[in-house]
Write a structure and sequence with these properties.
209 residues; binds S-adenosylmethionine; seven-stranded mixed sheet; 24% helix; single chain; Rossmann fold; alpha/beta; 6 helices
Amino acid sequence: MGLPNGVRYVEFDGDERLATCGEPVYGEAVVDGWRRWDPHRSKLGATIELGLETGLDGGPRVLYLGAASGTTVSHVADVAGPTYAVEFAPRPARDLLSVAESRRNLIPLLADARQPERYAHVVESDLDLLVQDVATRGQTDVALSNRRFLAEEGRLVLAIKSRSEDVTAAPEEVFERSLDRLESGYEILETARLEPFHADHLAVVAAPR
Ligand code: SAM
């Protein structure tokens, strides 16, 4: 599959790197307005780099769970439509607020992604894309409880960190269990291990059932 609209390979110091066009945020390299999107710093960036179909094409309306200080969600907002960014830790959320200042389509929400009812009055329904990178125990349950925001033909792009679920179990075992559980609400379309960019992470692309 090709890259989503608005995401390109741009030459940085002689190497072709993933990039989006927008205000710089975290000291990333910029060439002619194109900001380098480093897959080592972004699970979604790695997922795109590995060729999965993320549904980021065509200016989607997005709910992003686990926005932290806005590294990845800033790239998402460069190419997407309205982008709701949920983060529950106050410190990174402060940085996220300043990222949102230069992106009118980025709506930061200081909220717990395990309690979607707390932001259901703000977030639109029938969204095109749910991106999740929360790296805490119960990642599958978070994806299941936020499924309500997705349109029927929407997509989930989930990064599962095995160590957040179980530090002792083999990652394959954790991923298998997580996928089994996820299937109660989603049809799994694609999966890929995120090595060499992120150890013991699985990217999952899924459609709501
Ligand atoms: N996605 C970010 C990026 O690429 O720029 C990095 C996210 S970091 C791995 C995980 C983030 O999820 C942390 O900032 C953490 O505070 C947040 N998080 C964890 N559990 C959460 C929850 N239940 N609700 C909201 N945010 C949560």
